[in-house]
Inverse folding.
């Protein structure tokens, strides 16, 4: 069954359709949030996202555009959480350290995750949406509310920053 059909059924009040949408999209949403925040905060933000999805689903006018709509909600939730934390930190300059979860330790991607978390949030977000969530440039632009050209320039800058960071840490060893 397609997402579009599930959305229509969920809008008609079918609980099983909502449950299926959550089942299908929970991992991609949590992964996106996890790439932007740490694991502990990702769980809380993911719950906030799903609550917002359930509240907003009846008003979704284009059921075929569920994924971009979902990631737009996720982006807003992440942005709100980061804004709150930046306000509390009163301009602390150091980025938060990356906390590894057991699955990532097994795969030994800590270096890449640390490099990713060192990127500025706009560049990190574009990398996560485009490469890790496999969204096309146009959908990334729609989710972030920016032109496609800006997405492309952020992708280019993010790749350069990531490459430079990885080279620096590799030479330090």
């Amino acid at each position: 069954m397609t997402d579009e059909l599930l959305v229509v059924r969920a809008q008609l009040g079918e609980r099983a359709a909502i449950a299926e949408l959550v089942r299908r999209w929970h991992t991609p949403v949590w992964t996106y949030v996890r790439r932007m925040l740490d694991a502990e905060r990702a769980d809380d933000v993911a719950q906030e996202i799903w609550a917002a999805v359930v509240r907003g689903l009846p008003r979704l006018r284009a059921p075929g555009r569920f994924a971009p709509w979902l990631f737009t909600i996720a982006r807003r939730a992440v942005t709100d959480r980061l804004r709150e934390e930046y306000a509390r930190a009163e301009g602390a300059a150091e980025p938060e350290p990356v906390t590894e979860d057991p699955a990532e330790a097994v795969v030994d991607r800590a270096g890449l995750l640390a490099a990713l978390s060192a990127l500025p949030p706009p560049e990190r977000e574009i990398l996560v949406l485009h490469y890790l969530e496999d969204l096309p440039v146009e959908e990334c632009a729609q989710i972030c509310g920016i032109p496609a050209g800006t997405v492309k320039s952020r992708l280019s800058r993010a790749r350069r920053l990531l490459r430079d960071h990885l080279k620096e840490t590799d030479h330090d060893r």
In short: Residues 102-108 have pLDDT under 50 and may be disordered. The radius of gyration is 17 Å. The chain has nine helices and no strands.
